[in-house]
Amino acid sequence: MAYIPPVALTIAGSDSGGGAGIQADLRTFSFHAVHGTSALTCITAQNTQGVSRVDALAPEAIIAQIEAVFTDMGVQALKTGMLLNQPIIEAVTDYLKGLVDVDCVIDPVMVSRTGAQLIDDNAIAALKKLIPLATVLTPNRYEAEILSGQSIKTLEHMKTAAQAIHGLGAKAVIVKGGGFDNELRGIDVWYDGTTLTKLTTSCIDTADTHGTGCTLSAAITANLALGHTPFEAAKRAKEYVTQALNYSLRIGTGQGPVGHFYPLLT
Ligand SMILES: Nc1ncnc2c1ncn2[C@@H]1O[C@H](COP(=O)(O)OP(=O)(O)O)[C@@H](O)[C@H]1O
Ligand SMILES: Cc1ncc(COP(=O)(O)OP(=O)(O)O)c(N)n1
Predict the structure, then answer these.
(1) Does 261 reside within a domain?
(2) Closest CA to 192 of 155, 212, 162, 217
(3) Is residue 1 in a domain?
(4) Number of independent structural domains in the chain
(5) Residue nearest to ligand 1 atom 17, measured at CA
(6) CATH, residue 240
(7) Domain region containing 84
(8) Which atom from ligand 1 is nearest to the alpha carbon of 202?
(9) Which intervals hold domain Pyridoxamine kinase/Phosphomethylpyrimidine kinase (predicted)?
């Protein structure tokens, strides 16, 4: 019997170490039984310790990949990850503006947990023009500081930052708390213009957190493709990343990746 699966697209970079980027996104889509498609933006030489080199693809090559997917398949939801530079961000923004009925999760990837800068300095202004297309925008603590122009040290700061960033035009914003080293680690703040609330799961005591941000945004995308509302998709994604962190993988000498297929890891 022919099965028609939901389809999701990730527009993101490659992580040679397999923990973040397009590799994490496609594993997350697969876990949710969503067919994963991809448009590669750049190639990072990366492992659990950091990023040693980045090579960008030409904007035309990226748009060709997106177009190949959209002209042939019905895509219910997409996410953007590492977009790297201004020409890539502008080309992707122009393409996404023309889409109808596709939920867009924008992960404004700028800095990795290992401290690697993942976007050119002059690309941040361009990224702000992509934000109004977001069904859900998922900045981490440091990205939220850049986008809101305020320092974030407390839960109250996370809330005011989420409200300020919502003003940039996203339908909903999640300020993620994984970058804290206190009880806020693992608490996220959701704001959609009406509801301001915490997304709380248990805090997992592990250093192997590589790829959590990519995994969360990909899981939101998969759940949107499955037909859930943005808030329900965010809650389910938060549960998923927490389980994957619970079974994170001790690989490499730095921060290992999360266990995307945790039910198999017993
Ligand atoms: N130690 C942890 N325990 C529970 N949840 C965590 C932990 N670290 C990160 N998370 C969750 O992982 C997701 C990604 O957040 P974060 O790590 O801040 O993003 P990024 O990888 O983009 O820096 C968020 O839902 C966050 O709450
Ligand atoms: C290719 C690539 N894309 C995105 C990231 C950032 O990943 P993230 O999930 O935010 O996790 P950390 O890198 O902070 O662990 C990346 N590193 N590489």
Answers:
(1) no
(2) 162
(3) no
(4) 1
(5) 178
(6) 3.40.1190.20
(7) 7-249
(8) 4
(9) 15-258
